[in-house]
């Protein structure tokens, strides 16, 4: 593969995660754990490759978080409404947070001409939601995991609000 094609690899992985995420709705429960694990691993892999290959891009800054949001949306939707494993407030708070973050990021991109970078707390929240899905699929449902995930959803939202407001000072 040539250098430019290799540099596209992280974006291709993100795009595949985005396109495959809706299939979570169709995967039987006994196969959802490995399917979701592959998608979650692809999140790690695309970021690792982008840094390693020095292939970070504006497209990647948009595509990777959208793929993460799609993956977590469909996984949470399925574990909440199809399998009744996780309380619905986790799903709705994540959806609200993500809608507001996308709108804020879009506004920043249009008004400032710069695609905002993902925040460490946002990445940690993505990990926590994925972790919650995985442990719930494995049968480890305990309210402490719900509260912890909810804490990160709220904390990351407040972090993004802080960055958004600071960028317009």
UniProtKB/TrEMBL annotation:
What stretches pass through the bilayer? 7-26, 89-109, 121-138, 144-165
Ligase in keyword set: no
Give the principal location in a single coarse category.
Answer: membrane
Per UniProt, the keywords (alphabetical) are: Lipid biosynthesis, Lipid metabolism, Membrane, Phospholipid biosynthesis, Phospholipid metabolism, Transferase, Transmembrane, Transmembrane helix
Output one GO MF annotation.
CDP-diacylglycerol-glycerol-3-phosphate 3-phosphatidyltransferase activity
GO biological process: one example? glycerophospholipid biosynthetic process
Coiled-coil residue windows: none
Matching entries from Pfam families are given as: CDP-OH_P_transf (PF01066)
Task: Name where it's found.
Answer: Membrane
Determine if DNA repair is one of this entry's keywords: no
Give the catalysed reaction(s), semicolon-separated.
a CDP-1,2-diacyl-sn-glycerol + sn-glycerol 3-phosphate = a 1,2-diacyl-sn-glycero-3-phospho-(1'-sn-glycero-3'-phosphate) + CMP + H(+)
Provide the topology term for how it sits in the membrane: Multi-pass membrane protein
For this protein, the Enzyme Commission number is 2.7.8.5
Matching InterPro entries, A to Z?
CDP-alcohol_PTase-I, CDP-OH_P_trans, CDP-OH_PTrfase_TM_dom, CDP_ALCOHOL_P_TRANSF_CS, Phosphatidylglycerol_P_synth
Would you name any one GO CC term? Answer: membrane
The pathway is: Phospholipid metabolism; phosphatidylglycerol biosynthesis; phosphatidylglycerol from CDP-diacylglycerol: step 1/2
- Which PANTHER family does the protein's record reference? CDP-DIACYLGLYCEROL--GLYCEROL-3-PHOSPHATE 3-PHOSPHATIDYLTRANSFERASE (PTHR14269:SF11), CDP-DIACYLGLYCEROL--GLYCEROL-3-PHOSPHATE 3-PHOSPHATIDYLTRANSFERASE-RELATED (PTHR14269)
Family membership noted in the UniProt record = Belongs to the CDP-alcohol phosphatidyltransferase class-I family.
- This chain belongs to the protein called CDP-diacylglycerol--glycerol-3-phosphate 3-phosphatidyltransferase
């Amino acid at each position: 593969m040539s250098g430019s094609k290799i540099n596209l690899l992280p974006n291709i992985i993100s795009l595949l995660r985005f396109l495959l995420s809706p299939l979570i709705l169709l995967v039987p429960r006994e196969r959802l754990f490995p399917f979701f694990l592959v998608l979650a691993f692809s999140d790690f892999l695309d970021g690792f490759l982008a840094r390693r290959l020095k292939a970070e891009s504006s497209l990647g800054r948009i595509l990777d978080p959208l793929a993460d949001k799609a993956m977590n949306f469909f996984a949470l939707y399925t574990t909440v409404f199809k399998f009744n494993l996780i309380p619905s407030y986790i799903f709705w708070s994540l959806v609200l947070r993500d809608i507001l973050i996308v709108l804020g990021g879009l506004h920043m991109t249009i008004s400032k001409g710069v695609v905002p970078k993902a925040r460490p707390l946002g990445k940690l929240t993505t990990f926590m939601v994925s972790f919650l899905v995985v442990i719930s699929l494995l049968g480890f449902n305990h309210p402490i995991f719900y509260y912890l995930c909810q804490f990160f959803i709220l904390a990351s939202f407040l972090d993004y609000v802080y960055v958004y407001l600071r960028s317009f000072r």
